[in-house]
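Checked the freezer inventory, then went back to the computational side. Two predictions to log before the end of the day. The first one is the construct we discussed on Monday; recording sequence and tokens without edits.
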Amino acid sequence: MRAARVLLAGLALLAAVAFVPPSSAPDRLGRWQRSQHSVIAKLGAFQTTHGAVAPDARSFAQHLRTQLHEQPALAALQPVLCSVAEACRDISRLVRHSAVGGESAERSVAVNVQGELQSEMDVEANRLLKAALCRSGHVAIVASEEDAVPSRCGGGRREFAAVIDPLDGSANVAAGLPTGTIFGVYRHPLGPPPPLAAAASTGSAPPTRFDAAPSGVNGGGLVDGGADEATVLQRGSELVAAGYCLYSAATQLVVTVRGHGAHIFSLDDAAGDFFVSGPPLRLPADGPLFCFNDAYSPRWEPVVAAFAHDLKHQALGASLQPAATRASPRKVSARYVGALVADVHNVLRHGGIFGYPATRQTDGSLSRGKLRLVYEANPLAMVVRAAGGAASDGRGAILDKAVREVHERTPLFIGSASLVAAVEEYVRHFAAS
């Protein structure tokens, strides 16, 4: 409440500054200008006294200390997750500055392992996040969507492995639309990586040291390549922490740690830190949002098309045999931003379902899906499940899927538990018919 009163008072002062007197009253202009100087001075004093953050607001680090105090075995997660928050803050600034300049957001500089064009933004976000994770001192391996193979962090015994999508939806930046960062953290079950000399003597070319960072950034000893992929091929159910950053009207960090719920934190630019924003997130069991790219509907499997048709017509079950129609209690609203983080965040806050199904290819074969199981689907599935939702590939829980290779793709249906369960019900019925 105090924060709300502070905001309202600040807005009232800004409204006073914005008022312009009529030009037909030049004799009153001087008095008006003098009064505005007074208002601006009061506004500055107001901001100095109250600040942008309520005095009792809990920072991200304070929240983690309290949460991890109950789980001593995961205490080393705090510097890891704080390093993610630090990188998200820097990427947020990068996104905003690039939106102003425009060029780096659109200029392609390479093609990544996915066969997708990389912008300067993609490359820089990848560098920032990998370097921050290695600097934490507790991450042994970083696997990035942007890299062909995982990278290693050198120096000492490190307990965790991280998987990242540094800048999801980067094509949105030039248009001023939301983008995000996705991350997940596993235990590193295989022990510390071998020394660099041993890794370089395997007969292949020695890994290249990650030297794109300015002086001092490379304190974690990040090395491109040379990491054992098996460490990051664990099922999503083995994640110990996951989350995402959303870069939009506000920069928000959503995090879950195993055994706890999902919490949201907002970046205060003046303080340069994230602060708790409200109670733990709870995803409604049902909801109005339908977040599918309908442009691909002609290429969907018949079962997905039937589910989407019935849901949009408030008649789930109508296409099943025997029909088991159950009317939706609310109208469906179609929403699709084109950035996975933004769409899932919207569903998480309001309820509904996001879907990116497999599609038919020109040769008639069915794709394995577009989204990456390791970097995107698994971390977001952990967050949504912690908030009371669910995630599936249509045939089973995303978090239970065996991971065959680091860049594996998957269909994804994620959101309110009842709607994700309905997708699986449709798949079972169509398979049996």
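The second is the one RB wanted added to the comparison set:
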Amino acid sequence: SVLLNYMADYQKEKFKVSGGECSLWGRKAKFIPVEYKTHEGKTKKSKLLISGFWGLSRHMNYVFELMLALSWSLPALGYGYFPFFYFGFLLILLVHRTFRDEEKCLAKYGEGWREYCKQVPYRMVPFIF
């Protein structure tokens, strides 16, 4: 799960550094071009990645972090709920953060964000949430 989280972060960084001109999982990276306004009122252009892990869900990196937290708790299975407290805390924190992040992105990118959500319909767990 640490490796998967690293790979997801690497994909996003590779995409940013190359200006979207890169391959992810052996295919040319796909993206949605968007515009947004800075606090100063200037219009900027950006790209929302819809390939690799970032095409499976909008916050796939959170899933990998949760998997890691759960893996730390599983050896204590049978010793009550306390060993799973961190996993539960992180689950609540990251699900809440997902909604906060998406609210901010909708305000920032507008229609571009709506299109992104159509292209990548799952927030965290593909085919579930």
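For RB: The beta strands are 23-24, 27-28, 31-37, 43-49. Residues 81 and 96 are 22 Å apart (CA to CA). Let me know if you want it refolded.
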